[in-house]
Amino acid sequence: ITKQQYSVNCAAALAYVLARQGDAVGFATFADRLDLRVPPRARRGHLQEIFANLESLEAVGTTNLAVALDALAEGMRRRMVLLIFTDLLDAGEDAMKAISRVAARRHDVALFHTMDPDELEFPFEDSTLFTSLEDDRQVPIDARAIRQAYLDEIGQFLRSVELQARSAQVEYQLIRTDSSPSNVLARFLSWRSSARHSAR
């Protein structure tokens, strides 16, 4: 399963739970700019509109999460819960700063850092041709020669993202596409319960 498919499944489950609780649920995507697909609403039939948009979602072009989040935050007049699914690998240098800015406006933010197991473990041993999913780039690599350097780099990247998220009081979940979406849902519900309790 791709990261996008996994994120769609998790987002659909979370939207369903939130809608059943009576919350207004919306849906937005981003590439180099924000695309607000479905504005937040709490009415009959709204959930099906979100599901239809999720099902038809296609990955297009490069991403700039910072620009998209700043545009989204400008339109968020009430306190909201913002759920972000991204691998952050091509999100732009200012992505975490933008996430922190949204949280600083007293919105509840959950970052679902979605990664493929191969990105985390780099199980490749031989000369391998890596093909970009977002453009036509192809890079031949001696996987064995760079494996440890890659693991060190990705480990540092993950630690930095989590540290920035925690310091901004953003709920952080590193989620692997080979794990059960039910685990993501359970952790989110636990976080929401704790957030609501502390807000009282």
What report would you give on this structure?
With 200 residues, the chain is α/β, with parallel strands linked by helices. It contains 7 helices and 7 strands. It has helices at residues 3-20, 46-55, 65-74, 95-104, 117-121, 143-167, 181-199; strands at 25-30, 34-41, 81-86, 108-115, 127-131, 138-142, 171-176. The strands form 3 sheets. A 3-stranded parallel beta sheet has the order 3-4-7, sandwiched between helices. A two-stranded antiparallel ribbon has the order 1-2. Strand 1 and strand 2 (34-41) form a beta hairpin. Helix 3 (65-74) packs parallel to helix 4. The N and C termini lie far apart (40 Å). The model has no long low-confidence stretch (mean pLDDT 89).
Q: Descriptors for this entry?
A:
200 residues, alpha/beta, two-stranded antiparallel sheet, globular
Layout of strands and helices, then pairs:
Elements: H1 3-20, E1 25-30, E2 34-41, H2 46-55, H3 65-74, E3 81-86, H4 95-104, E4 108-115, H5 117-121, E5 127-131, E6 138-142, H6 143-167, E7 171-176, H7 181-199
Helix pairs in contact: 1-2, 1-7, 3-4
